[in-house]
Amino acid sequence: GESVGLHLPTLSVQEGDNSIINCAYSNSASDYFIWYKQESGKGPQFIIDIRSNMDKRQGQRVTVLLNKTVKHLSLQIAATQPGDSAVYFCAENMIPGGSNYKLTFGKGTLLTVNP
Amino acid sequence: DVKVTQSSRYLVKRTGEKVFLECVQDMDHENMFWYRQDPGLGLRLIYFSYDVKMKEKGDIPEGYSVSREKKERFSLILESASTNQTSMYLCASTAGDQETQYFGPGTRLLVL
């Protein structure tokens, strides 16, 4: 889930396990959602996105699920690897159809993969 | 591949100095953004630009200005750096009709 205060929520998993990272978004009118991965000292890297007319989208080893009823987004990572260790955060487009496509970002979850 | 580059990975400046952070993208993107990222606060939008010479304030523009003279380049300016501007600065860009923002590697700025 999203962080409160100075400490990020953390998720620790064993290598090979599946990981599920959650995100609660704020605007029921948002129509686009995106997950980013940020490794230490680097910029955020796009993982996968989903539009509000879908409830599931799959990529390579990753799946995003969208539950609009409860405004909840999750990222599932299959067969988690040590290289997946990073901060993951979600973002939503809070101005659907706007000309500048501003995103609002969550604070992130720290995923640690233990070998 | 989308490529967003930032002029420096690390910068150390003194209070009161004028600081320039440069961002260049090579994908002919219309929209460019500057964020700062601080522990516990996530990414906060400072300024964005949706066209050359066009800019709009984000959520925390105070103490910053920007310049977009060319489509590929978006500069963030700290007119008089202060210690509370010590942060990680991230630049991003998107094509005009796309929401996916592509980020640069970030500049970690320390103001002493």
How would you describe this structure to a colleague?
The complex is a heterodimer of chains A (115) and B (112). Helix content of chain A is 0%, strand content 50%. With 115 residues, chain A is an all-beta fold. In chain A, the strands form 2 sheets. In chain A, strands 1, 3, 4, 8, 9 and 10 form a 6-stranded mixed β-sheet that branches. In chain A, strands 2-7-6-5 form a 4-stranded antiparallel β-sheet, with no helix packed on it. By secondary structure, chain B is mainly beta. Chain B has one domain (4-98): Immunoglobulin-like. Chain B is 0% helix and 57% strand. Chain B contains no helices and 11 strands. In chain B, the strands form 2 sheets. In chain B, strands 2, 4, 5, 6, 9, 10 and 11 form a 7-stranded mixed β-sheet that branches. Chain B is globular, with a radius of gyration of 13 Å. At the A-B interface, strand 3, strand 4 and strand 8 of A face strand 5 and strand 10 of B.
Indicate the topology.
The complex is a heterodimer of chains A (115) and B (112).
Chain A: E1 10-14, E2 19-24, E3 32-38, E4 45-51, E5 56-58, E6 62-67, E7 72-77, E8 86-93, E9 103-105, E10 109-114
Parallel strand pairs in A: 1-10
Antiparallel strand pairs in A: 2-7, 3-4, 3-8, 5-6, 6-7, 8-9, 8-10
Chain B: E1 4-6, E2 10-13, E3 19-25, E4 31-38, E5 42-51, E6 54-57, E7 64-70, E8 73-78, E9 87-94, E10 102-103, E11 107-111
Parallel strand pairs in B: 2-11
Antiparallel strand pairs in B: 1-3, 3-8, 4-5, 4-9, 5-6, 7-8, 9-10, 9-11
